Amino acid sequence: MAYLGAERSCRALARALPFAAVACFGVVGFLHAGAATHAVAAAGAAPTAVSSTTASSTTASTAVSSNEAHLVYLRDCATCHGADARGTPFGPSLQGVGAASVDYWVSTGRMPLVDQGRPPKSPQGRAPPGQYVADPNAQIARHPPFYPPVMIDALVTYVSRIAPGGPPVPSVDLAHSSLPDGGQIFRLQCAACHAWSGVGGALYQRAAPSLHSATPTQIAEAVRTGPGQMPAFGTAAIPADQVDDVVAYVRYLDHPDNHGGEPLWYLGPVAEGGVAILFGLAALLLASRWIGSRG
User: Fold this and answer.
1) Using one digit for the tens of pLDDT, what is the confidence trace for 181-235?
2) CA 157, CA 169: separation in Å to the nearest integer?
3) How far apart are CA 125 and CA 144, in angstroms?
4) How far is Cα 41 from Cα 255, in angstroms, rounded to an integer?
5) If DSSP codes are grouped into helix, strand and coil, which group holds residue 170?
6) Where in the chain do CATH 1.10.760.10 domains reside?
7) CATH 1.10.10.60 fits 172-262, yes or no
8) Taking burial as the number of CB atoms within 10 A of a residue's CB, which of 49, 96, 114, 213 is the most buried?
9) What's the CA gap between 157 and 105, in Å, rounded?
10) Are the CB atoms for 148 and 68 separated by under 8 Å?
11) Do 80 and 105 contact (CB within 8 A), yes or no?
């Protein structure tokens, strides 16, 4: 209804100030485009989740033996972490880090560290097995996982056997979660680094990554294990029954219920003020030029 009212105002302005109406209609078109983009993104969210689940269940039909996981660990992980997972000069020990930490690093593609020149068109973005060895000097960043889900599960189980201890992979239940409670905790504990919209942010000599690509399990794992320079949040900071609330809110940030049209990339009031000044000044300049030409 707000868009219809804006269109009527622009048509009235068109009869009085033809040049200024051009800028006004531009603003209305911008709002329409933003609303349509948001609707398409929200409508496309569900099919994406279904296809991902289908792919995982299809891959899960192929079992991975403990011996296969052992060989993959020796090939891709032992160079830095050691054959006994006690660390080397190139990488830390995995003793006591926990299954949640191993699953997070491997499922987000941050591990193993491989040559950045891997074929970009390899299946699922993974390097062909055995083609690249671990590279301790590679940049740690999120990538598509290098292994299928069944191999990741097998590696987590294998590392947990040779390096016991630490938090297990959390079980996430979003059915009984609370978005308001999750939003309050997120703004209190997470927004300072990851920004209020979850897009990440620049910090001193580091950067907090965007949260939009993380799965519910990965979000819960990061909360409990504190990957990289992120602090681990224990039950004193975020109780067990509130982790699901935080996960639900972070997932909500992927497709938030925006009111008022185009969110302008969630950059905040600076971008919103900039667009308002740009279109507002353009309308005023056009109007003043038209008035001057009529005088």
Assistant:
1) 999 999 999 998 998 888 887 676 678 888 989 999 999 999 999 998 899 999 8
2) 11
3) 6
4) 7
5) coil
6) 172-262
7) no
8) 114
9) 14
10) no
11) no
Query: Is residue 53 within 8 Å of residue 44, measured between CB atoms?
Result: no
Structure tokens at 228: 């990289």
Tell me 203's DSSP state.
Answer: E
Count CB atoms within 10 A of the CB of residue 5: 10
Q: What is the CATH number of domain 63-169?
A: 1.10.760
Give, as one character, the DSSP assignment of residue 91: B
Pick from 91, 69, 81, 75: nearest CA to 133: 75
164: helix, strand or coil: coil
**Residue ranges with strand state E in 165-287:** 201-203, 206-208
**Residue 3 is encoded by which pair of tokens?**
């868009």
Question: How big is the chain, counted in residues?
Answer: 295
- Using left for φ > 0, alpha for ψ between -120 and 50, and beta otherwise, residue 163 falls in beta
Closest residue by Cα to residue 151 from 205, 84, 76 = 76
DSSP 3-state of 93: coil
99: left (phi over 0), alpha (psi -120 to 50) or beta: alpha
| Distance in angstroms (rounded) separating the CA atoms of residues 69 and 76 | 10
Going by the DSSP 8-state scheme, the letter that residue 264 receives in this structure is G
Which distant-in-sequence residues (6+ apart) come within 8 Å of 132 by Cβ?
A: 114, 115, 118
Using CA of residue 74, residue 79, residue 83, residue 85, what is the dihedral sign?
negative
* Geometric angle at alpha carbon 231, from 229 and 233, rounded to 5°: 155
Gap between the Cα atoms of 103 and 159, Å rounded: 10
pLDDT in tens, 126-184: 555 555 556 666 668 888 998 999 999 999 999 999 999 999 999 999 999 999 999 99
